[in-house]
Amino acid sequence: MNRIDRLNALLIHLQGKPRVLIGELEERFEVGRRTIFRDIRSLIDSGVPIGGNAGDGYFIVEGYHLPPVVFNKEEASAILMGAKFVEQSADPQTIESFEKAMYKIKAVLKYTDKEYLDNLEERVAIRPSPSPNPTPNSHISEIQLGVATNKLINIKYYSHYNVSTTTRDVEPLGMVFYSGRWHLIAFCRLRQDLRDFRADRIEKVTILTEEINPAKHPNYLDFLNQTLIGTDAKEVTITASSMAVRFMGEQKYYQGFVEEKKLADGKYEMKFVTPYYDYFARWLMSYGNEVKITSPSELQGFAATIAKELFDHHTSYFK
Fold this sequence. Notes:
Structural class: alpha+beta
Largest sheet: 5 strands, antiparallel
Helix content: 40-55%
Distance between the termini: 74 Å
Oligomer: single chain
Low-confidence stretches: none
């Protein structure tokens, strides 16, 4: 990156945050501290009102605005690719907002880049996952507002578990997309505990005036990981052929994959952490005799029982 491009990127980076530490700038631009000092001095000399210092971080004085941002075709193409994913994973309100943003992005492109982006848009597609129903209005915008402003929110939530709808005040800690849906992780004042709320089951969101302190609660990602893995998770060791490892692909990560190492005979020793022996054993069955359970013996018993059931079931066709 040449100096002119770095100065422009530095200005945009400073504009994007209330305060930026110098270490962050060194890492972002892969240059030394003295170079950052010189660049900041150059921006100040050109009339940009930058405050702060190396110890506390730097900031642009409130009220200063950058001239209109111009995207090059590579940046616009990257945003287009993101838009394709948004179309498949967001609710109607978010999709509409993103489409408006794309129109604004196209408006500031050069004519040749607009043609480039139009051609790309017609020839890039994401095949949607099978779904019986379209994504409902999941109130993503309102949830984002609560998360970003640390405001207490009131939600009307449908519980599929007991087929009931409740209204509750929750402290929004974070949003996570997994299993094809957006989820709100929040401290529920009704249950006095952290909860995972599926966004598509939230029927109404009201932003309240009370401010919350997310630091009072455990990290929302730590809570989610513990919930998904379970508190009774145990270590599993298997031996798998190279073909089985190849076909597992990314699936192994959904089964609690931890590590693997290649053995002298060309096979692989793989370790997993799972609380669901029955489910894990059934997953291993799909690889036939290409995998072998090393430990624990309890999981070996599950697999043996399932294998016998399958044998008895399918040999009945020939009786």
